[in-house]
Amino acid sequence: MSTDSAPVSGDGAVESPVLGPVVCAALRMEARAVRRGLSRTPVVVVGYRARHAARLPDACAALVAVGFGGALDERLRPGDVLVADEIRGAGGAAVPCSAPRLLAEELIRDGLSVQVGPLVTTDHVVHGAERARLAAQGARLADMESAVVAARAGRLPVAAVRVVVDGPGHPLWHPGTIGRGLAARRVLARTGPALERWSVLLVRGEEGTATG
């Protein structure tokens, strides 16, 4: 599982195939946070709306999209973590995630507040009536990158872990967002060890008992 031999270029791209997973973050601040808990897993900055998804390697154990997101229903509160069981694109197509409940269990082991459910990727920040519409369709959280990463993954296993910053009753454009963002960054920094434990189990083929 070691990825120590996988060089990373100045723009964050992995320059050679790796045996383990690759973590994908939209923003450098997200990448810096999640790196704090990772010992051997490379992190690639894919940019806002995953505009630089071409930086991702073609060969690795899995692609994992991490970062912040906006809750679509009140069951998710700022600071909670959503592990996606499927990633929906703007057109409604859904990509199933690999061993989401196993990943959630590993995060819970580290004391995080975790829920599992569908994630939807949009090309803009959602709020108001659109947030309610997406929630009525069963989506739990929205982001702007995971579906792009999933499309890039092809047949590779894919996962998404998002820390809630805003949601119903907690609008993004509000002074309180600064404090929630700092708190979410601290949560994100705690996800790394669970991601690496999950990836070991995934490669060993132990996910079959924890999916669904």
Automatic annotation (TrEMBL):
Report which residue ranges the record marks as coiled coil: none
Do you know which Gene3D superfamilies this protein is assigned to?
Nucleoside phosphorylase domain
Q: Which SUPFAM superfamilies match?
A: Purine and uridine phosphorylases (SSF53167)
Residue ranges annotated for the Nucleoside phosphorylase domain, each copy included: 22-167
* Protein's name according to its UniProt entry: Nucleoside phosphorylase domain-containing protein
**Which organism is this entry from?**
Actinomadura chokoriensis
